[in-house]
């Protein structure tokens, strides 16, 4: 057996244990009360091991949110297709986003992040910057459709955020701030269809 491969598997297992422990800590204690010491203890690893994987609490929290996002993206990547109707492509993209926003773990961690950001606007800006380090699939799709001449948009990032806002008004903010139940499948479809139709009526 390759010693390097065995070491890598152990390292990967420790990283998973750290992330799982961090999620539990953030949800149980909130952002401010969670420390790298508490995460290390819950993960049954040394504090040094935690820092070997993550330079700080902010990076660890951002990694968790990225992991939840990645979990919602399982399956084939939804890239722009010139041969497929825009509405059908948009509905696929929005359906994927709505599944993430329907995930209770994601919503719980979003509440933690928002509470942390209220007490520290600088920290909130840092979290948003970390999450924006890579472009979202929706923005990439909008840019591709614009480049193909099928959407008329001067600012693709603004338009993508506008579209997300239409969805989050029903499937994120009421759940995070007012404890409303996540949307059912029929409600998700209604939100996705109305958002896609409004977006295409303006930009197609």
UniProtKB/TrEMBL annotation:
Keywords of the record: DNA-binding, Repressor, Transcription, Transcription regulation
Claim: Repressor is one of the keywords in the record: yes
Gene3D superfamilies reported for this sequence: Homeodomain-like, Tetracycline Repressor, domain 2
Transmembrane segments: none
DNA-binding feature ranges: 35-54
Xref: InterPro entries: DNA-bd_HTH_TetR-type_CS, Homeodomain-like_sf, HTH-type_TetR-like_transc_reg, HTH_TetR, Tet_transcr_reg_TetR-rel_C_sf, TetR_C_Proteobacteria
Domain HTH tetR-type: 12-72
The UniProt record lists the keyword Metal-binding: no
Top-level taxon: Bacteria
Pfam families with a match to the protein in the record: TetR_C_7, TetR_N
Entry protein name: HTH tetR-type domain-containing protein
Species: Paraburkholderia gardini
